[in-house]
Amino acid sequence: MPVELKMPALSPTMEEGMLAKWLVKEGDQVASGDILAEIETDKATMEFEAVDEGVIAKILVPEGSDAVKVGTVIALIVQQGESVETSAPNAPAETAEGEAEEEEAGEAPAEEASEKQATTAVSPKDEAPASLRVEPEVPEGTEMIRITVREALRDAMAEEMRADDRVFVMGEEVAEYQGAYKVTQGLLEEFGAERVIDTPITEYGFAGVGTGAAMGGLKPIVEFMTFNFAMQAIDHIVNSAAKTNYMSGGQMRCPIVFRGPNGAASRVAAQHSQNYAPWYASVPGLIVISPYSAADAKGLLKAAIRSEDPVVFLENELLYGQSFDVPKLDDYVLPIGKARVVREGVDVTLVSYSIGVGIALDAAAQLAGQGIEAEVIDLRTLRPLDRQAILESLAKTNRMVVVEEAWPVCSIASEIIAIAMEEGFDSLDAPVLRVTNKDVPLPYAANLEKLALIKVEDVVEAAKKVCYR
Ligand SMILES: Cc1ncc(C[n+]2csc(CCOP(=O)(O)OP(=O)(O)O)c2C)c(N)n1
């Protein structure tokens, strides 16, 4: 199979760039780490490195090409002795079609293109697994609409803003640019600049303004461009918002939602690829939600906006473009603190949240082929954690693996293992295992990034291990 080289995203906001110069030609042998080309953006000129070794079979975008969209296939690499024609004649054409379709559907922001680049360990898929169960609380016969997680989040905010004029959104690029990841699309147009507010690049400032507004009776939604930048604002989240109810003896509440993408994205390096779920989930006074599907994103964001207490709502960039069925109901709100069994099984429980749920479901499908029926639980809310759902499933399967796209130390997985030991010891037929990212800052190089992130195969292996297979 030829390897497609795609126009890289050299920053989280890069949408296109100039392919300034090719440093290799067709027929050249390349090794991982070789510099293949120079890419220019309005900000910088960067070198484009080979990740795989092989022979440059075809250069599809000539040097000097301007405005090449992130994700465009620019060249093909094959292995020695392989030719593009014999191995995959349609590869480039299919990619081009796929991109054209996305453009038509009006959703190809830079980040989405970079999603498609994820080579990968955490591999985004366009469609959610069919096994996702519909919420039991949805009335029978409810019509479903298929929308992306991005659209579901936008719909949740728009519906709550229509229903309650205290709700407003603020953050970097949320208004005119409609969100760095296009999650606030259409909100400025519908609600105007008083309720959809572009802020300066001052996370500490606007998280504080939001927290004060919440204490004063408004219902802010503060978008962080990514949760990596919320590090600047963490004092307001942990020390102001989370403590208000407690330090005022219940006389003041702080109904605010801090939301934005969290976790590893694709090729944006260590400072932009971290999962903060365990950090926030350790703080009493905060509610922490991290959905996987579009239906959960919608139902839980609506619940978060209605909450009287501060909510940290952790989304995932790689899920924004994925489509799922969402109930077509006037007011689809889900309960905070309730996990969901997304696949039933009897042999082993896989517990996960956010993007890890997709990995767990893929692993469950592979395990089924090997005679192991895995139950998959999507935690959805990380604080308060649905201990009952975890323990009930453990009592049924007696074996558990936690799948978490995060570091292993002091993780949500660690907490679940403690719960299993303290409260589910008699149910256990094997030690609970955790499948997490490697305990390192996420590398930038694609081959190392892939090695550092959780993979379906690791989950399959861990599940077999706890089943003594
Ligand atoms: C604390 C923090 N918040 C947000 C970002 C995301 N970010 C990266 S570049 C950028 C825009 C920078 O604009 P400007 O300061 O005008 O510099 P320019 O790159 O346009 O020269 C933003 C918001 C970041 N890197 N760090």
From TrEMBL:
Coiled coil ranges: none
Acidic residues bias spans: 96-112
Top-level division of the source organism's lineage: Bacteria
Catalysis performed (reactions): N(6)-[(R)-lipoyl]-L-lysyl-[protein] + pyruvate + H(+) = N(6)-[(R)-S(8)-acetyldihydrolipoyl]-L-lysyl-[protein] + CO2
Record region (Disordered): 83-136
InterPro entries with a match to the protein in the record: 2-oxoA_DH_lipoyl-BS, Biotin_lipoyl, PDHB_mito-type, Single_hybrid_motif, THDP-binding, Transketo_C/PFOR_II, Transketolase-like_Pyr-bd, Transketolase_C
EC number: 1.2.4.1
Domain Lipoyl-binding: 2-78
Keywords: Lipoyl, Oxidoreductase, Pyruvate, Thiamine pyrophosphate
Group of enzyme by EC: oxidoreductase
Keyword field contains Transcription: no
Cofactor(s) needed by this chain: thiamine diphosphate; (R)-lipoate
Molecular-function GO term, any one: pyruvate dehydrogenase (acetyl-transferring) activity
Subunit relationships: Heterodimer of an alpha and a beta chain.
Biological function: The pyruvate dehydrogenase complex catalyzes the overall conversion of pyruvate to acetyl-CoA and CO2.
Record-given protein name: Pyruvate dehydrogenase E1 component subunit beta
The species this protein was found in: Sphingosinicella rhizophila
